[in-house]
Amino acid sequence: SAEVKFNRNSLLLTLKRYSSAVSDMEKTILLPSLLRDVPSGCEAADETCRDLYANYLMLKAIRNTVESSLVLLDDHKGKNTTFTKTLEPSVDADPEALFLFHLKGLFSVMSDLIKKTRGLTEKYLDIIGLAN
């Protein structure tokens, strides 16, 4: 329906918003090497803490995966199973409820990635002295 087509929370629109945010990031960040060794804002003791350059590369890679849809279903089997088993509704649950659970999770992840992409772009502008 037309209402769903223009719904702000539609999956297609959310994926396009992420792709657009990454494209804007790439157009703005002309010298990604300036992001090397700039902390991403996480705790220094955190092992997963990356510099902004690593975040830049990760955000671009995720966009490429989203656009190409080359994620193999077997890639994620067996990874983080204890985490997903504690949060995911039971396999015997209503298929619609299971679908909605994963769709809400996808929207949450994509919204977070959009915020991170825009934040990285803003940080780069701050580094080069062009922050608003």
UniProtKB/TrEMBL annotation:
Q: Does the keyword Isomerase apply?
A: no
The superkingdom listed in its UniProt entry is: Eukaryota
Arranged from A to Z, the UniProt key words for this protein are: Cytoplasm, Nucleus
Q: Where in the cell is it found?
A: Cytoplasm; Nucleus
Name one cellular component (GO) term: cytosol
Some GO term, biological process aspect, for this entry: which one? regulation of lipid biosynthetic process
User: Which PANTHER family does the record cross-reference, listed alphabetically?
Assistant: SIMILAR TO VERTEBRATE MID1 INTERACTING-LIKE PROTEIN, SPOT14 FAMILY MEMBER
Family as reported in the entry's similarity comment: Belongs to the SPOT14 family.
According to UniProt, the name of this protein is Thyroid hormone responsive
